[in-house]
Structure formats: C-alpha cells, structure tokens
Design a protein that fits this description.
3 helices, 11 strands, 151 residues, 6-stranded antiparallel beta sheet, globular
C-alpha cells in the first residue's frame, strides 16, 4: 500500500514501496525537492541509496566527488560513504530514492511526525537519525554565488 505524500522541510515524500512489502529487501520513496534544497552531508550505515532522477536536476556529492544528474540519470551512493545533494536550477527535482535494504523510509515518517526542522532541531534530528543508522557529517552542499544572485 502506498502512503500519502507528506511534506518535511523543503521536500515532499511518498513511500511508493515500503519495506513491509519486500520482506525488508528494499524500499522506494518518491521525493520532490525545491530548488536550492538538500539534506546535510550524511552517511547511511545500514543501506545503499540509489537516486533515479525523474525531472529537474540535482548536484550530488558522494565520497568527495560531485556530479550533476538530470532526468533519466541514476546515481548510486553506497552505505558507509558520505553523501549529500542539492537541487540546482529553477525547477523542483522529482526523484525516486531506492534504499537497499529497506526500512529507511520510516526515517522520513519520524521526522514529519516529530515536526523536526533543519537546522533548528539538528540535535533531535541527529538523535532520531542514529536509530536508523544515519549519521550527519556536515552542512548541506553550498549554493554557488551565481545561483544565489539569480534568486
């Protein structure tokens, strides 16, 4: 059963396939993120994360390497490797996030239900994230000067 799209911060999240339907093997979350937005740098200790870009563009930093991805691109972030992304351009980015194994989709539910806000509630966010094997390692990716001026 699919969940209803829910907003947290600068994005909406909708679980398309929950780990309860895959015996924990994977989960798929559809996300729509606003331009300029993205999570703080972080590491998933338990799962690999794959991004499938459906529309818009994002810049991803994975293990110190930065790439730009657009519609039709798929980007893999292995567990244990620091990563982050930010939406570039003027349009939102709609993408699927595939977690292997599943379970991380519940992190977004916990953030929404706890009404946590970045950066105001980073202590609570970090504490809750740790229960999901997520560790924050730094700030979000910076918006470059040219993009800041254009806004």
């Amino acid at each position: 059963m699919q969940s209803v799209a829910r907003k947290w911060g600068e994005a909406t999240f909708q679980t398309r396939v929950g780990s309860d339907r895959t015996r924990g093997q994977l989960s798929i979350v559809e996300t729509v993120s606003r331009p300029g937005s993205g999570p703080p740098r972080h590491v998933h200790e338990r799962e690999d994360e794959t991004f499938v870009i459906l529309s818009g563009r994002m810049e991803l930093m994975i293990g110190g390497r930065t790439i730009t991805a657009g519609p039709g691109d798929t980007v893999f972030a292995p567990r244990g490797v620091e990563h982050a992304f930010r939406v570039v351009g003027e349009d939102p980015c709609r993408h699927l996030v595939i977690f292997n194994p599943g379970g991380c989709e519940s992190f977004f539910d916990a953030m929404i239900e706890g009404q946590f806000r970045i950066p105001r509630d980073m202590d609570g966010i970090s504490e809750t994230a740790a229960t999901f094997g997520i560790r924050f390692t730094g700030p979000p990716m910076a918006v470059n000067t040219k993009e800041r001026i254009r806004r």
